[in-house]
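Async update (no meeting this week)

Hi team, since we skipped the sync, here's where things stand on the single-chain job. The sequence we agreed to prioritize is pasted below, unchanged from the tracker. I ran it this morning and attached the output directly underneath so nobody has to dig for it. Comments welcome in thread, and please keep replies under the output.
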Amino acid sequence: MKKAILIAASVLALAACAGGEQDQASYEITDSAESADAAAEMASADSEAPQLESGPAAIPASMPKLAYQYGYSYELPSPEVSRLMRKHADLCEKQGPTSCQIIGMNLSGNADENDMRGTLQLAVAASHARAVGALLEDEAENSGAEQVSANIAAEEVSKKIVDTEARIRSRTQLRERLTEVLKTRRGSVEELVAAERQVAQVNEEIDQARSWLKETQGRVTFSKLDVNYSSSDVVAGSFIDPIKAAMGSMGSVLGTIVAIFMLLGAIVLPLGGAALGIRAVARKFRPTAETAAASTGT
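Output:
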């Protein structure tokens, strides 16, 4: 009997141990599953989280405002100066008014005397200025012109533009305050009259500042491009050229001689007149002196 009870107790103990191990294993499996679910949720949350930029944050910067001025000079035979200038002007007009505009054109001299000079002034969109300059150079090269100079100059006008815009804002605010005073009619007559004068002065300052700002912004948008032309050839001499040179020299020599005679005349004539006058006076008094001397001798 006791042996049976001991066997039963052993069986129950073994069953309890097995149940405990099973419960522990079940707990461990559940805990592992929950850990896996938590890890999956964390991975999902990480994948949905916004990614940081790998590089440094972009820092906005204000680009400088530059007013460019281009200059080109060409030498070519006198008869070709006007032709090349017209070709360059036509080339500018073909670009359209939004890209290139003619603002000045001057041609002077005499082709026969090898003294032709010309200037073409253009206003070119700043983004197209280099391209237009290259087209002008190609056209000049095709016409047989020699480029003697090329330059680019720039003026930084950012600060001037910013200062002018700030001045316009401050003057506009002042005008609004003065206008409000005039509307409410607060103050004495003298104060109201002074306010009206100040409003007129402020309006003038605003107009001048806006005009300068518009002109400066135009210089930034459109660059100035000047093209200068001059003669390079030497006209062959002819039979009449030495004669013309000799006649010119003779004229200058004759002019010099006449000038010398005029100078001498201006000096000699007064001196000669004075000498003649003295001599006449001497002759007048000489007989009287001789008569006196004769009387004394007798």
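Quick observations from my side:
Residues 1-36, 38-60 have pLDDT under 50 and may be disordered.
The chain has six helices and five strands.
Reply here if anything looks off.
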